[in-house]
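Help! Submission page says 'invalid entity' but I think these are all valid:
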Amino acid sequence: MVLSESWKNFREGLADGLLPLLGKEIRGRSRSWRFPLLLSIYLALLSGGILTFLWLNRQVSQFFLQTGLLLYGLFACGLVLLLAFIAAAVAATAISGERERRTYDLLLVTAASPAGIILGKWLSSVVYLLLLVVAALPLLAVVYLFGGVPLVTLGKALLLSLFAGLGYGAVGLAYSAVLKRSQAAIIFSLVTVFALIFGTLIIAGIVATSQRQPGPVPPPPPGKERAWYIYLSPLSALPDILPQNGVPVPIAGELINISRHLTAGAAGVYYEEPPSGMPATWPAWVRFTVYQSLLTLISLFIAALAVNPLPPWRKRQLLRGTKEPPPKKD
Amino acid sequence: MIRIKGLIKKFGRVTALRGLDMTVPAGTIYAFVGQNGAGKTTTLRILAALLPPDGGTVEVAGYNAVKNPRAVRELVGYMPDFFGVYDDLRVGEYLLFYAAAYGIRGPEAARRRDNLLELVGLGEKREDFVDTLSRGMQQRLCLARALVHDPPVLLLDEPASGLDPLARVELRKILRELGRTGKTIVISSHILPELADFCNYVGMITEGRMVYEGPLTQMIAAVQVQQIVLRVAGEQTPALKVIEAWPNAAVVKLTDEQVELRLAGGEAEAAALLKELVQAGAAVTHFARTEQTLEDAFVQIASEVK
């Protein structure tokens, strides 16, 4: 009986936060000048990258297929990185912005539960990310002019970029809930995202270099694999969705090869036990999405605790301290 | 309707509330008065389940604010002293958003929006963006927001702060109207004459403790201090000598025309003083007692506590 009452309260609190906030955020963003501006910058960066690539490779028409693959690789890299940083920066103002606008108390005093508020804010950033992904599709279609990229690989790239955005958006939301100022939340979020994307690989590279013996890179010892934390970076999953062969195209080809070397080469010589419960056969992009889902859940949980005026441990503490008769309804 | 016992709240080393007791009977308009920093806002935030107490019990309609904060929030409409608005929403959308956050959607939400906008006089502003409203209008909109789930208890923290005189009059009118609907309203303010106009219960807080609580009329009657304006024909000296010698009297203001004095005690004390003045040879031409106000009462109680 008590359980069903708690479940009812949880469900109602969730709905009272999620539905109105989702509607309000979408409506608000569609009216704000910031969204079209950000969308324009985002598309300009992606288009600029593609145009620069095509201009640099104007001499290599004989490598038409490889050019298409490389263009796709460059596009996938750009999409993943842009969405990761945009999602974190946008979500980092979600709760702290409410505090700064002095609308935070008005939100908390409603029947919406902390989980409902956080999920509403997070899902609205999901919708925002989906819009960014959809807006990039016409650019992705340019890749098809050159051919050579299967639809499944293309889908993986979009999935990867979406998961990167969702996870890092949740990190931004957690910072926004914990820190009072938007500026601080944005800085901390971007630094954390930078550390997760590049820092993990750099650490893996340093560890690998310190352990590396002279001579060729040895194959992984049986039962060992790459350091688990490199899967916190979407760059570790990129080789799964990038062209597999070396490509003789100047500059752009080098960029992608460096990315592959960074993830599969340097980090690959540092081996350890695989994380428990995760089959060693899982490809890197699947591992990344699993880790990203965990990161999302942990971040959302922290955010929900941070916005709760009466967190569960404090409630227990207070109720232990008060000896009073059970509440009665008027 | 509201029962607080031994409420304690600390912010680091500062103790904001030191065992506050408060009882608000159902249907009263409760003036919650006190100096700045006395603990009014902290108490209201705890009542709205926005802040956990460090000790004591808080109950609204029998629901404990710690044990059942969700139930308390549904019973309470809260209007903070400083608040912001979503500048990207229209007035009507703003109310619909908060209605949905209380689980009220569809035609019922639209009906409440229209009724509340009429109540606060913003019916014609429904399609305007919230940030285009004046401060007074935003204050009224925030009041409508606090009423959107039809709560039996309203907590208003300095609702008239920052409003011009006209906007204050309008707000008072709305609050009087709400009082007639039988809602329990707790209003914190330091502008006491405003509260005295329409409140019927008063709680006075000083340094985190309730120093007086009860019906407003009783409080004013209980405070036996009166202001007296005295005019005499000719020499004021005999009158001043009597006042100086009188144990419960003190001159507040002295001019060539009149003497203003403060006198502790009731009507009998005033009559006795007048008799003494006449017997001492003072040619009294004017002896008038001014009516006690909430402000006078507050000043006296606060000074007694000190």
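Support: the input was valid. A stray whitespace character was the problem, and the output above is from the cleaned input. The interface with chain B takes residues 9, 12-13, 15-17, 19-21, 23-24, 27-28, 31-32, 101-103, 105-113, 309-310, 314-315, 318-319, 321-322, 324, 327-330 of chain A (CB under 8 Å).
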